[in-house]
Specification:
Length: 405
């Protein structure tokens, strides 16, 4: 084999340059890097090309946790530690959920320092038929158009992640099409207890049911962790089908059957196409700032965990009515709802020569995807036309805006 050493190759005519012919293999040697303008790099150990776009899943490395890093006594509802990932629970045991710091293991060696972890603290070995524990991320229709679902050119899916549990066996992951009430499932095996293992799951394309190109929910990536018979009496479908709840947890992890049980996950990655462990594109590690901004489209923590955190500039509309405006750091998915913690004198407005305390914050006025007006008209006593700085006044006070799917 001969070697040609050049600094640049130009086409002999026109602008088209061809390497090889049909059926040839173009090889990038191990350790070398081949960069294509407008794409991420292609390396000799992972010969894959991906456009320079944001990852489909948000916060897959579990680095952002706006709501907090640890919650105990969790028994119901939607629960978030790592942003965008919902630990959804209905009447099945009691749990602790945390953003876990990694300091060892194969996932850590692969570049991941955070994980979502859940521990069972009160067991329920015989859940009622409608009880469940799911871990999932919900995606807007506008975020999944690259799969071309519902068209003749529909593309397959590949999901990868690192996972660890004390339980071993074969378990399940679902893709749920919420626009067309369809689903498909894949399985993964945990082979060694309490050991990080990387999993790659391929899902087929679906030429039935196009996703709406909007800001409403179209796709759910769902990890069943436990459920009663209404969710576990069927069979995991390897082909797309009309959604059947009985099929969603056919390979039951049964994480709630013992207080010794735990499950952790990180590096959750969804790609367009079919890949193996040797061909899947490398995980897109984002800066914390970019990752946070993508999370803030759905949930924005404005002020919390300080006794003197800045909220905004306020004014007295009347002697008993203050208002203030909050502008969001990015456009949220929809006009958000207000989430706040109230308590005696949890908030204050500081004027030129006085401080006025109040307990509650109410939302109203011109709430949009980029700003909202807040007010209080029940605990205020000041001078009409006056102004001041609005701040928190208790470490338990917090103000957030929620536009989750």
């Amino acid at each position: 084999m001969s070697t040609l050493n050049v600094d640049k190759v130009d086409p002999s005519s026109g602008t088209a340059l061809e390497l090889g012919t049909s059926g040839d293999t173009i090889t990038v040697p191990s350790g070398a890097t081949f960069v294509v303008a407008g794409t991420t790099e292609i390396t000799g150990t992972n010969n894959v090309q991906r456009p320079n776009v944001d990852p489909i899943l948000i916060n897959g490395a579990m680095n952002v946790a706006q709501r907090g890093t640890s919650f105990t006594g969790v028994t119901s509802g939607s629960n978030y530690t790592s942003d965008r990932f919902d630990f959804l629970l209905a009447n099945l045991g009691t749990w602790t959920i945390i953003q876990e710091a990694l300091t060892s293991g194969d996932a850590f060696a692969d570049g991941f320092s955070k994980a979502f972890r859940v521990d069972c603290t009160t067991a329920d070995a015989s859940p009622a038929s409608a009880d469940y524990v799911f871990f999932k991320q919900k995606l807007e229709g506008s975020s999944v158009q690259a799969f071309k679902k519902g068209t003749a050119n529909a593309q397959p899916f590949t999901l990868s992640f690192w996972v660890k549990s004390n339980k071993t066996g074969t378990f399940q992951v679902n893709l749920l099409d919420e626009d067309n009430d369809r689903m498909v499932s894949g399985t993964y095996a945990i082979s060694v207890a309490d050991t990080w293992e990387k999993k790659i799951i391929n899902f087929p394309a679906d030429t039935t049911g196009a996703w709406d190109n909007d800001n409403a929910m179209s796709l759910e990536v769902e990890f069943p962790l436990d459920a009663g018979s209404s969710y576990s009496s069927g069979t995991a479908p390897s082909a797309w089908e009309t959604k059947n709840n009985a099929d969603r947890n056919a390979n039951d992890l049964a994480l709630g059957d013992n207080t010794a049980n735990d499950w952790a996950i990180t590096a959750v990655q969804l790609e367009v196409g079919t890949y193996t462990s040797s061909t899947i594109p490398p995980f897109q590690h984002e800066s914390y700032g970019n990752n946070l901004e993508r999370c803030q489209r759905y949930y924005y923590l404005h002020a919390a965990n300080t006794s003197s955190g800045d909220v905004g500039v306020g004014g007295y509309y009347s002697s008993s009515y203050i208002f203030f405006n909050v502008t969001f750091p990015c456009n949220m998915r929809t006009a958000p709802s207000l989430v706040y913690v109230s308590g005696t004198d949890y908030y204050k407005i500081i004027g030129i020569s006085t401080t006025d305390y109040f307990n509650d914050i109410l939302g109203g006025g011109s709430g949009t995807t980029n700003e909202i007006n807040f007010y209080n008209n029940s605990q205020i006593s000041g001078t009409e036309g006056g102004a001041g700085f609005v701040r928190t006044n208790n470490t338990s006070a917090s103000i957030a805006l929620n536009a989750e799917l």
